[in-house]
Specification:
This is ubiquitinyl hydrolase 1. It contains 38 helices and 16 strands. The radius of gyration is 36 Å and the shape is globular. It is an alpha+beta fold and 1028 residues long. Strands 5, 8, 11, 12, 13, 14, 15 and 16 form an eight-stranded mixed sheet that branches. Strands 4-3-7-6 form a four-stranded antiparallel sheet. The chain has a two-stranded parallel sheet with strand order 1-2. Helix 16 packs across helix 17.
Length: 1028
C-alpha cells in the first residue's frame, strides 16, 4: 500500500510553484480550457487573482479570441479595438462631465499585465488560500478548525463529497475502524477486491489526517488516483459528483461486504454501508390496464428539477406519475412509496439535460428551493391511505383555484378586443369623464350631425352610460397612440438628458352636454356597478387566499410530521455542463453554523449564503446533491463538547494510524524549520518597510477597512461596492426588459436610476434610535452628509462596475460598460483625494459602529473590562468624525453614557479588590487601575467634559480618597494608595497608549443593521442579548 504522503522537505521550498499549479488546475476546471500556456498567461496577467483570470478568459472566449491585425502575435492577447456606442444614445449627465459624452470607448486588452488597475486592485479573499504569502500560518491548522483538501487537478468533486461524508460521525467511525482478518486479506484474489481494500486503507489514512493533522489542508493524491483508474474517461476530465458518489458507495459496500461475509456470507442487509445509505421503495401502478407492484433498492434518489419550484414538488412529481384515480379506468399510472428510509438520505438533482438541436448537454439553471428540515411521512407506504386522501383534497383545491382565478381574470382583464383592462378601473374612468366639466363649451360643427340627442327616459339614460363605457373600452383598445385616458410619463430617453420646459397640459376630455338628471342617474348606476364589481373582486381574492392557505397547510398534519430529516450537506456546482467547479456547504454541529468547503479553503458561512449559491436562478451556481440525515444520526453528531469527542476518536485509532499521524505532524515541523532556514538565508539586509509596519499596527486593518487600501482610493470604494453586491444584482435583474429592447446602455441607465432612487428615499427617512440606514449603504452616508454630487455618482457607478457581478451575460455586459465609463472619468471631473477621504470616513464610521455594538453587548453581559476598551476606541474615532459634521458619526452621548458606566463599574471592582488585603486581589485591582481606569479618566478630562462625566470622575476620586487614614489598612497598602492618588487626582500628566481591542469578524450590511437593531432594542428593554 502506498499511503497518502504529505509534502517532503525538498518540496516545501517550491511551495509557490505548487500553489501556481493548483491555481492552474482551478482555472482549468472552471473555464474548461486545457491549454496550460494560455492559462499561465492569464494567471500572470491577473497578478495571481483567480477570479480576475477567469473573467479575462471568459471575456476572450465570448469575444471569439479575435484580435486586430496590429495586435501582437501572442495567442492569449485580446483585441484592443474599441466600441462605438449606438448613435443617438445620450449618456447619463449624473455621471459627470468626464463620462457624459458619447463616442469612442477604448477597451483595454483583457490580459494586459502592466495595467495600473491590475497592480492596485486588492486581492480577493478567495485567492489568499492558495498561498500568495507562503508563511507558516498559511499552511498550519488553527486550533480544531476543519481542514481543507488539496486540489491535485480537477478533483474538486472528490473534496466536496469526501468532506460531506467525513462530517458524519457514524461514517467516519466505520471508515477509521475498518479492518479485515489476515486470512481474509490473504484469500482475496480478485483484482476488484484488492483494489477496494487498497482504497479503504488510503481513505483511512486520509480520514486520520483530516481528524488530527496540524496542516491547514491534506493531500488526497493516493486515494484519488485509485478512483481515477476506475473511470473510463481521460485523466484530465472533470468527474461528475453523482457518478463519483455512486462509484464510491459501490466500493465501500464491496469492501465492507468482505467483513460481513465472515459471519453472514452474501447477506447485504448486515452491510453497514447499506444500512447507512440505502433504502427501499415500492412501486404500485397500472400498465396497459394491468396492475403491477415491485420493490426496489435505492442509494441516491434522483429528482427532476425542470418544472418544479421546491423540493417538495420534486418529490411529489417523482412519487406520482400519470393518473391513479380509482373512480375511473386508466391505462397508465404509478405511485412510489418509501418502505424503508436510510439514516443518510441523498437526493440527486438532475440539473443537466441533452440539447438535441445543439447536440450537447446543457445545465439547468432554474431556481429550486429546499428547506433545512423536511418531513418524509407523506412519502411513506405506512401513511398511504392518509396521504392519498390528502392528494385527492389537494387535487380538488387546485381545480377550485383554477376556477377562481379564471373568474378573477374576467374582472381584471375585461373587454373583447386585443387589449383588456380591469373593469373597476374602467368604471372609474367613465365616472371621471362624465363628472368633468369643460372649461369652454364647444358647439358641434354645423352640418356634422354629431350633437348628442336630449334623452327623455331612464332607459335612454342607462343606454347612454353603457355607450360611454363601451367608448372607454374602445379608447383603451386603440392604445396610447390613438388617445389614452391616462397621460403618458416621460420617456426613458428623456431621463438621460436635461428636461425641457414641459408643454402646457391640454384640457381633459369632457361631455359636451349633460343635464343634472342625466348626471345623477348615470353616476348612481356607475357607482353602484363599481361597488358591486369591487366587492366581487374582493370576495374572489379572499377565496383564492383561503384556498391557497389550505393548500399550504395540507401536509402540516401532526401525523405527517413524525419522520423529520435535517439538511446536513449541499454539494454545489458552478459553471456549465462541460466545465465547472464543485464545493460543499456542511452544517457543523459543534459550532451550530454552516461551513463552506472549497478545496483547501474552509470558511464560516451562513444559510443566506447557502441559499444564494445553491438555489440557482441568480447565477451559474446551484445545488447538485442534497444530503439529509435522520433524527437518529442528527442526535449522534457531536455537540458543544466536540473537541473532547474528537480527542476520543484520536485515542480510538489503531496503533498504525496513530503512528502515521504522529509521523506526518513531525514531518510538518521539520518542513517548517527547513523553510524558515531557507527564508532567513534570503536577503538578510531587507527590513520591514514603514508601510508594512503601519499595516500591522493600523487599527483600520480590521474587517471594515483593510489597511492595504492606503495607497489606492479605489480600494475602499471597491470594498463598499462589494458590500452592495446583492442590491446591485437585484437592480440589474430588474432591467431585463430594457436590456432586450434597447441594449446594455439603456439597461445600465435604468439600473442606475432605480438604485439611486431607492437609496435617495432611504437617505431621506427619519432616523430612529433603533435603525440607522447609513449602515445599509455607503451612498446613504454620502447623501445624508451632503457629499459632492461627483463623489456620489462615481460611487454608484463603481457599484455597477464590480467584477463580482459576473452572474450572466447581462450583468457582465453592464459591468463592462460601467467600467468603461469609469475609465473616462478624468482628474478634472472628480477630485480623487476627496473621493478617498469620503470612503475612509465611511469605513471608519462602520468601524465605530462595530466597536460600539461590541462594547454594549459586553457591557450587558457584565464584561466591563473588555467593554471599556471597545467603547474608548469607539469614542475617540467617533470624535474625529463628528468634527467634520453631525451626521458623520454616531450619537456621542450614547457612547459617553456607557463609557462612564463602565468606568464606575470597574472602579468599584478595583476598589473592592484593593481593600480585600489579599495579595492577588490587590495586584489585580492595581492592574485595572493602571490599564483601564486611569487612562479612561485622562481621555475623559482631555476633551470638553460634560457635567455627567465630571461627576463620574469626582465619584471615582472620592472613592479612593475615602481610604486615606483607614485603620484597617496596613502601612503597605497606605503607601500604595499614596502613590496612586496623585495620578488619580491629576491625570493630565499621564501618557495614554490605548491597547488595540481584538479584531472582530466582518459583518455584512444586512447583518450589521440587524445587530444594531437588536442591541438598541435590548438597551431600551434593559435585557441582555447575544448577537452572533
Amino acid at each position: 500500500m502506498a499511503p497518502c504522503r504529505p509534502l517532503s522537505p525538498p518540496h516545501l521550498v517550491s511551495l509557490c510553484s505548487q500553489d501556481c499549479q493548483m491555481l492552474l488546475n482551478q482555472l482549468r476546471e472552471i473555464t474548461g480550457i486545457q491549454d496550460s500556456a494560455f492559462l499561465q498567461a492569464a494567471l500572470k496577467a491577473a497578478n495571481g487573482d483567480l477570479m480576475e483570470a477567469v473573467t479575462f478568459l471568459m471575456e476572450e472566449r465570448a469575444e471569439g479570441l479575435v484580435g486586430d491585425a496590429a495586435a501582437e502575435p501572442a495567442p492569449w492577447e485580446g483585441s484592443a479595438a474599441g466600441k462605438q456606442p449606438p448613435p443617438g444614445e445620450a449618456i447619463n449627465p449624473l455621471w459627470g462631465a468626464g463620462i457624459s459624452r458619447p463616442g469612442h470607448v477604448s477597451r483595454r486588452r483583457p490580459l494586459e499585465a502592466h495595467s495600473p488597475e491590475n497592480k492596485n486592485r486588492p486581492k480577493r479573499k478567495r485567492c489568499e488560500v492558495w498561498g500568495e504569502k507562503p508563511k507558516g500560518s498559511d499552511w498550519r491548522r488553527v486550533g480544531d478548525w476543519p481542514v481543507g483538501m488539496k486540489n491535485i487537478g480537477n478533483t474538486c468533486w472528490f473534496s466536496a463529497v469526501i468532506q460531506s461524508l467525513f462530517q458524519l460521525p457514524e461514517f467516519r467511525r466505520l471508515v477509521l475502524g475498518y479492518s479485515l482478518p489476515q486470512n481474509v486479506l490473504e484469500s482475496c484474489r480478485s483484482r476488484t477486491g484488492k483494489r477496494n481494500i487498497a482504497f479503504m486503507q488510503e481513505l483511512q489514512c486520509l480520514f486520520t489526517l483530516m481528524l488530527g493533522t496540524r496542516r491547514k489542508f491534506v493531500d488526497p493524491t493516493a486515494a484519488v488516483e485509485l478512483l481515477r483508474d476506475a473511470f473510463r474517461s481521460a485523466e484530465e476530465q472533470q468527474q461528475d459528483v453523482s457518478e463519483f458518489t455512486h462509484k464510491l458507495l459501490d466500493w465501500l459496500e464491496d469492501a465492507f461486504q468482505l467483513a460481513v461475509n465472515i459471519k453472514s456470507p452474501g447477506d447485504k442487509s448486515e452491510n453497514p454501508m447499506v444500512q447507512l445509505f440505502y433504502g427501499t421503495f415500492l412501486t404500485e401502478g397500472v400498465h396497459e390496464g394491468k396492475t403491477f407492484s415491485k420493490l426496489e433498492t435505492f442509494g441516491q434518489y434522483p429528482l427532476q428539477v425542470n418544472g418544479y419550484r421546491n423540493l417538495s414538488e420534486c418529490l411529489e412529481g417523482a412519487m406520482v406519475e400519470g393518473e391513479m384515480d380509482g373512480a375511473q379506468v386508466v391505462t397508465y399510472g404509478q405511485e412510489r412509496w418509501f418502505t424503508k428510509l436510510p439514516p443518510v438520505l441523498t437526493f440527486e438533482l438532475s440539473r443537466f439535460e441533452f440539447n438535441q438541436s445543439l447536440g450537447q448537454p446543457e445545465k439547468i439553471h432554474t431556481r429550486l428551493e429546499f428547506p433545512q428540515m423536511i418531513y418524509m411521512d407523506r412519502y411513506l407506504y405506512c401513511r398511504k391511505e392518509l396521504v392519498q386522501r390528502k392528494r385527492e383534497e389537494m387535487k380538488r383545491l387546485k381545480e377550485e383555484m383554477v376556477v377562481l382565478q379564471q373568474k378573477l381574470e374576467r374582472y381584471l382583464k375585461f373587454g373583447s378586443g386585443p387589449a383588456r383592462f380591469p373593469l373597476p378601473e374602467m368604471l372609474r374612468y367613465v365616472l371621471e369623464f362624465i363628472t368633468t366639466k369643460p372649461s369652454v363649451a364647444v358647439p358641434p360643427a354645423p352640418g356634422t350631425g354629431t350633437a348628442l340627442p336630449q334623452p327623455h327616459r331612464s332607459q335612454s339614460l342607462l343606454s347612454t352610460s353603457w355607450v360611454l363605457l363601451c367608448s372607454v373600452l374602445e379608447r383603451l383598445d386603440a392604445g396610447p397612440e390613438e388617445g389614452a385616458l391616462l397621460p403618458a410619463g416621460p420617456s426613458r430617453q428623456q431621463g438621460w438628458s436635461a428636461s425641457p420646459q414641459p408643454p402646457q397640459t391640454p384640457e381633459p376630455p369632457a361631455p359636451r352636454l349633460v343635464s343634472e338628471e342625466e348626471l345623477r342617474l348615470v353616476q348612481g348606476c356607475l357607482q353602484r356597478w363599481r361597488a358591486e364589481i369591487e366587492q366581487d373582486v374582493q370576495d374572489l381574492k379572499e377565496s383564492i387566499a383561503r384556498v391557497q392557505l389550505s393548500m399550504e397547510h395540507m401536509y402540516c398534519d401532526p401525523l405527517l410530521q413524525q419522520v423529520p430529516y435535517r439538511l446536513h450537506a449541499v454539494l454545489v456546482h458552478e459553471g456549465q455542463a462541460n466545465a465547472g467547479h464543485y464545493w460543499a456547504f456542511v452544517y457543523h454541529q459543534p459550532r451550530k453554523s454552516w461551513l463552506k468547503y472549497n478545496d483547501i479553503s474552509v470558511t464560516e458561512s451562513s444559510w443566506e449564503e447557502l441559499e444564494r449559491d445553491s438555489f440557482g436562478g441568480l447565477r451559474n451556481a446551484s445545488a447538485y446533491c442534497l444530503m439529509y440525515i435522520s433524527d437518529s444520526v442528527s442526535h449522534s453528531l457531536p455537540g458543544e463538547e466536540g473537541v473532547a469527542e474528537a480527542q476520543e476518536e484520536l485515542e480510538a485509532l489503531s496503533p498504525e494510524l496513530r503512528h502515521y499521524l504522529q509521523e506526518d505532524n513531525w514531518r510538518l515541523e521539520q518542513e517548517a524549520e527547513e523553510w524558515e532556514e531557507e527564508q532567513s538565508c534570503k536577503m538578510p539586509q531587507m527590513e520591514p518597510s514603514p508601510a508594512s509596519e503601519l499595516q500591522e499596527l493600523s487599527s483600520e486593518s480590521g474587517p471594515d477597512q483593510p489597511s492595504t487600501c492606503q495607497q489606492s482610493p479605489r480600494c475602499l470604494s471597491s470594498e463598499h461596492a462589494r458590500m452592495a453586491q446583492e442590491q446591485t444584482a437585484q437592480a440589474i435583474a430588474n432591467t431585463a426588459e430594457a436590456y432586450e429592447k434597447n441594449g446594455v446602455e439603456a439597461a445600465l441607465c435604468e439600473a442606475f436610476h432605480e438604485e439611486y432612487s431607492r437609496l435617495y428615499l432611504l437617505a431621506k427617512e427619519t432616523p430612529s434610535p433603533r435603525n440607522d440606514t447609513r449602515l445599509q449603504h455607503v451612498l446613504i452616508y454620502l447623501l445624508q452628509n451632503n457629499a459632492p454630487q461627483q463623489v456620489v455618482e462615481r460611487t454608484l457607478l463603481e457599484q455597477f462596475a464590480d467584477r463580482n457581478l459576473s452572474y450572466d451575460e447581462r450583468s457582465i455586459s453592464i459591468m463592462k460598460v460601467a467600467r468603461a465609463k469609469l475609465r473616462e472619468i478624468g482628474p478634472d471631473d472628480v477630485d480623487m483625494e476627496e473621493y478617498k477621504r469620503w470612503h475612509e470616513d465611511y469605513s471608519l464610521f462602520r468601524k465605530v459602529s462595530v466597536y460600539l455594538l461590541t462594547g454594549l453587548e459586553l457591557y450587558q453581559n457584565a464584561k466591563y473590562r473588555e467593554a471599556l476598551t471597545y467603547l474608548l476606541h469607539a469614542y475617540q474615532s467617533n470624535a474625529r468624525l463628528l468634527r467634520k459634521g453631525p451626521r458623520r458619526g454616531i450619537s456621542e452621548p450614547l457612547i459617553a453614557l456607557y463609557r462612564r458606566n463602565c468606568l464606575l463599574k470597574l472602579n468599584e471592582v478595583a476598589a473592592s479588590l484593593f481593600i480585600s488585603r489579599e495579595e492577588d486581589g490587590v495586584a489585580e485591582g492595581m492592574v485595572i487601575l493602571n490599564e483601564l481606569v486611569i487612562p479612561c479618566m485622562h481621555l475623559m478630562s482631555s476633551f470638553e467634559i460634560s457635567r455627567e462625566d465630571l461627576d463620574a470622575l469626582e465619584a471615582t476620586r472620592s472613592r479612593w480618597c475615602s481610604y486615606l487614614g483607614r485603620e484597617d489598612m496596613d502601612a503597605k497598602l497606605q503607601m500604595k494608595l499614596g502613590e496612586l492618588l496623585p495620578r488619580l487626582l491629576d491625570c493630565s500628566t499621564e501618557v495614554v497608549v490605548l491597547k488595540e481591542p481584538p479584531k472582530i469578524r466582518p459583518n455584512s450590511p444586512y447583518d450589521l443593521c440587524n445587530r444594531f437593531a437588536a442591541v438598541m432594542e435590548s438597551i431600551h428593554g434593559a435585557s441582555a442579548v447575544t448577537v452572533k
